[in-house]
Amino acid sequence: MAACHRCWTGVLAGGLLMLSGCEAISPPPIPRGALIEKLDYDQLVLNSSTQNDALSILGSPTTHATFNDNTWIYISMTKDLVPLAHPVIDKQQVLVLNFDNAGVLRKMDVLNKHDAIPVSMAGGRTPTPGTHISVIQELLGNVGRYNPMSSMGSTFGGMGNAGMGGGPLSGQGTGNGGVGNSMP
């Protein structure tokens, strides 16, 4: 028993030595979004550059502001894959260009990972109206839901009437089980 214990201890120690000597090979970072470098957006000049200049230098924006089409947003990030974990954001950059109504660049902001504001879920519950119904609503809830075709087979959207035997009320519709429904 002691010899077997020493054998396993030696195997584990040897495995740990082999693993400690290995260098971790990390995969290359994964780029996401518009990869905009400082050299690119430094070509834009406040109060002079236009939307066409931005399009030719940077390409199409990732998105526009929700309520202002003159605010262009370029979003990029680089993620590193970490074994046995979620990808980690290595680099994140958001370039915000504000144009006036004539299409001239008036303001430019560059935001990075450290400018991000963490957002958490709200602790309360949002009330949803209409989830509690009264007795009257329960009684009158089915008024108007009568479907005269419900007694027909499933071809007409009925219940199917399974278990009533063959024929059009057996859930096969009026097509006689597919016989005679083909085009000439």
From TrEMBL:
It comes from the Bacteria. Residues 33-107 form the Outer membrane protein assembly factor BamE domain. Keywords: Cell outer membrane, Membrane, Signal. Residues 164-184 are annotated as: Disordered. It holds the Pfam family BamE. The keyword Membrane applies. The keyword Phosphoprotein does not apply. This is Outer membrane protein assembly factor BamE domain-containing protein. It comes from Bombella mellum.
